[in-house]
Amino acid sequence: MWRFSGLHCWRQSRTQVLSVAKDSFSTAARGAPHHDFSQTALSCVNRHLLQGSRRPGNGLRSLRSTAPSQHGEYEMQDAKSPDEVVRVVFIARDGSRHEINGKVGDNLLYLAHRYQKENAALALEGSCEASLACSTCHVVVSQQFYDLLPEPKEEEDDMLDLAACLTSTSRLGCQIVLEKNLDGIEVTLPAYSRNYYVDGHVPEPH
């Protein structure tokens, strides 16, 4: 992925949307000579952005929201059977290893939140609540298991570009959902990260 591709896409999209908005404004303004230009233009831009499903050749990225997050409620539940258990090994910033039991369907970020109160070495911030708006849950996945993960979304790649200690097997913890084939997955917490909280704060599940 090319660096700054997100900025390039935004500039291209903005130019095209404003061009469409200008045409729409010309139509909307007919018969309304006293209509405020800024409000009409804003309305046009908003409408075309919200309608902006990707059409062939227009270069616009569609607006989409992240699927509703359960914010860790699911991860607070134990596996209902041994077949659902997925073992996860966290390698903390001091190099120590910590194995915990998750289950199929657990989000790695929220699973860490479940156990970090009793083990601060597992602390992952996740300040954007898994909405792909930060890189504070950055982890490094062992190569064996990295290759088993689905390809990251473009939004995840954009956030990883901002992460400290980036590696070729870096992923956001909030985008890793446990499957049975990930049993034994090893993830390393980077030596440091961009922390959105004050120093010393340990995020807690809620």
Could you provide a short overview of the structure?
This protein is α+β, with helices and mostly antiparallel strands and 206 residues long. It has helices at 5-29, 37-50, 108-116, 143-146, 154-160; strands spanning 85-91, 97-103, 138-141, 170-172, 185-188.
How many alpha or pi helices? 5
Question: What is the tally of beta strands?
Answer: 5
Instruction: Please state roughly what percent of the residues sit in beta strands, choosing from under 5%, 5-15%, 15-25%, 25-35%, 35-45% or over 45%.
Output: 5-15%
Q: What's the gyration radius in Å?
A: 22 Å
Largest sheet: 5 strands, mixed
Q: Helix/strand-derived class?
A: alpha+beta
Outline? globular
Distance between the termini: 35 Å
- Helix share bin: 25-40%
Low-confidence runs of at least 5 consecutive residues: 1-69
With strands numbered from the N-terminus, the spatial order across the biggest sheet is 2-1-5-3-4
Q: Kindly state the mean pLDDT as a whole number?
A: 74
SSE string, helices as H and strands as E: HHEEHEHHEE
Structure description:
This protein has five helices and five strands, in the order H-H-E-E-H-E-H-H-E-E. With 206 residues, the chain is an alpha+beta fold. Strands 2-1-5-3-4 form a five-stranded mixed β-sheet. Helix 1 (5-29) crosses helix 2 (37-50). The longest helix has 25 residues, at 5-29. The two termini are 35 Å apart. Mean pLDDT is 74; it is low at 1-69.
